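Purpose: get a first structural picture of the assembly so the mutagenesis plan has something to point at.
Setup: two entries, given in the order below. No constraints added.
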Amino acid sequence: MITTILILLPIAAALAIWIFPWRSQRAAGSFALLVALAELALWVGTALNFDFGATGLQAEADVTWFSDLDVAYQVGLYDYSLWLIGLTAVVTAAAVGYGFWSGRERLGVYLSLLLFLEGATIGVFAAQDLVLFYVFWEAMLIPLYVLIGVWGGPGRLGATYKFVAYTVAGSLLMLVAIIATGLDAGTFDMTQLGGQGTSTWIFLGFAAAFAVKAPLWPFHGWLPDAYRESPPEVAAVLSGVISKTAAYGFLAIAIPFFPGPAEDWRTPLLVLASIGLVYGSLLAFRAPDVRGVIAYSSLAQMNLILIGIFAVNASGYTGALLQMVNHGLISAALFLLAGAIERRTSTGELSLLGGMARGRPVLATILITTGVIALAVPGSTAFAAEFLVLNGIFDIGWGWAVVGAVAIVLAAMYMLRLISAVLHQEPGSAVPAEALDLRPAEVGVIAPLVAVLLVLSFWPAAITERVFGGIF
Amino acid sequence: METFTAPTIDWTALSPILITLGGAVVVLLVSLFLPLGVRRPFAAAVAGVCFVAAGAAAIALFAADDTGRGIVEDAIRRDRLAEFAQVLVMGAGLLSVLVSYRERDKEDRAGEYYALLLTATSGMAFFVAANNLMTLFLGLEWFSICLYILTAIAAERLSGLEASLKYLIVGSFGSAILLFGSAFVFGATGALDFAGIAAGTDDAERLFVVAGLAMIIVGLAFKASAAPFHMWTPDVYEGAPTPVTGFMAAATKVAAVIVTMRLLVTAFPGEEELWTVALAVIVCISLAWGNLAAIVQANLKRLLAYSSISHAGFLLMPVAAGNALGGRALLYYLIPYAAMSLGAFAVVAIRERELRAPVTLQNMAGFGWERPFLGASMALFMFGFIGFPPTGIFLGKFYVFSAVIDRGWAWLAIVGVVATAISVYYYANVIRAMYMQPRELAVVAAGGSPPQDRLLVTAVGATVAVAIGSFVFADPLVDIAADAVAFLQFPVA
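Result (structure tokens, whole complex):
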């Protein structure tokens, strides 16, 4: 029941915002923010009541939906999906808060789409029926298309075309794979499907959808435009949360349902992920703008996460999951900071920025803290996660671990370059002297994300000891 | 001397046909004596009541018993498949009344308009129950002639006349081919009724059976506007008054594909290996042609016409599968599809009335923000036509692909998937046109938007409810679809 509420609360609120005649846009926005916070509280309550020691599905609901083909509305929580749902709730609350504060045009519709997206994403993490999973998977695309297409930057139309074309092509292949899997097994129930898949083609159908959405190199063609043209809150959700649904798909569906084909294809997938990791890092180092750095670093980080998943062992999976949460928080914080910078300078070009630390201590502190965690400095939660990933992949082959270690060095290079180009050096030509430090509202939105990262840095075991219970 | 004994007639089973036909007569006669001002409300009210009554009669017949049987000397069937189709057709008729009501500014033709709408629906109700090739042809011509006239009902519009003429010529051509094919089949098997044909094909001259079957499929494909027999569709859809287009897109399609399935499954089960492949080819051509041609359309009605051609492909796909799963899939798919087609054309109709000009992608700019409900509904229809949740077409496509994959034709599902991916482009274009244009490009009706048309908005609301309702409450609808095709002996296991 609680799982259903977690899914439906934001969706119902989105509809309510849309139907109810609000007195003002601010009233609708306040309601949206309230719902986003309520959802977060609901998740905290769920997590406190969650039995992390137990194996198997918790908080299930199962209602027949389409009996002819044995499709059901079946949802439930595993420990790893619970963490990802938490990430969704945290990042969405921050995005809604930021959108509310920045006063977007048609605020009510804007925030209601963010809430709808939240519900669909939580649905993806909670669905235990393949058809239902696909429904939520596709449902995520609708609000994203509108959010980028209506509120995006000047190149938004091209960005939405690319984004939609890539993701639809991938997800339709997954639809065929889902039908073939379900007809073959006689059920679409994910709790009963584990380990039976032997068809390479069906495995690749699933892998296509996840590879595009993650994105795995070289399926990332949509990424730079989508991340550059989205409003910062949407980019935060897109890179922080939506990309995690793809990693989740590999982790919870493609690999466990098709152990044989996944084993056969491990090396090609690892090669792609390794290339993506290095390629993304290099491009992040060369990117001319703030969002470019964050976008390509996201590509690199997602490929690192996939390397951990393709290791298919306890250390790799645990590291990947912790890094999913870390990266979700890091990239959300960074995109919101990028939004804050663009708001003050009306550009993200690194060559026009610089010297923003002077007189703006809060901005400098938050950006440096986030950046240092992102580059996986020892002691940070990202360090813990990357260590686990490398440890996991080392068992498969030491060469993969070498690639990963190299990429961590590259991460330091692009992050320090970003920090230095924005905060230090001579004041950039686009930086007005009177540009303000972060406003209290901005701090209120971004600081909690960084605070969670700091807590996890002190205590990464909060997650690592409460995940994949009984699976390995 | 032979005496003619009149057949016993099951009048109850004929009630949906008779109610609508009777309504047409009443509307036509009484309108003559009514003053201009009351003619339209009267005609529309009678039509609406008749559609509700006929639909209720069909539902009652569906619920009354599950044994299908031939009536009127086996000329037509009383079975759940026919009744299911009749309910859909009556629903389409009812919604068309709501959509049309404010359309006709020429008061003096309101009587004829609603009478023709009733007669066309009556013909379709007859057509879907046909049990031999003669009644099939009779039903086909019955509703087709009404549609030819409805297309040209706004006689002062040249485009309507042109469309009607084109429809008449191409449609008659299709009917003639169907008739010719029927003659071949009759000549070869000596039977007109479907069961008799099925029993007679084994000993029949092969060439004539095959040629006859091919021509019958072509004739029906004309009506379903499946490519390559779709040439009339874009022009007729564009030229006809928009509510008529909506009615054609929904009701004609329902009738044509259901009859195609009934005929092929009951009369030609032995030729399964022929017609399944033939239909698969038609499906592929429809999907390719419909989707590719839709991409370049600027006129919204033409775009939806090509979308309807591509959907003819999706609708014939489960028939091509030839299995019981496909039968259920087809009937389920038709429910949201019919509703959403009507709804989409209703939105076009209101935009057309606002602007007094043909609706293009360009002049849809700003519509989504100006009319939030209709805009969001249109966006829902477009996302739904692609096959996105939460509309029933998502489950319909899922079901249809399942049927062909179950038959072992995964390649056909892949074709459908590729077509779906292409269709994203032009459906998304409509949404882009409504919501994502800069404010200064927004097209506003001269003198401000006309007042809300409550009836039309109600109709759109109903189609939205069906689109989403069929997604959420799929199970009972699938049960109904399963009941409706339970009696058919599908040739493929």
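Chain A touches chain B through 34 residues (CB under 8 Å).
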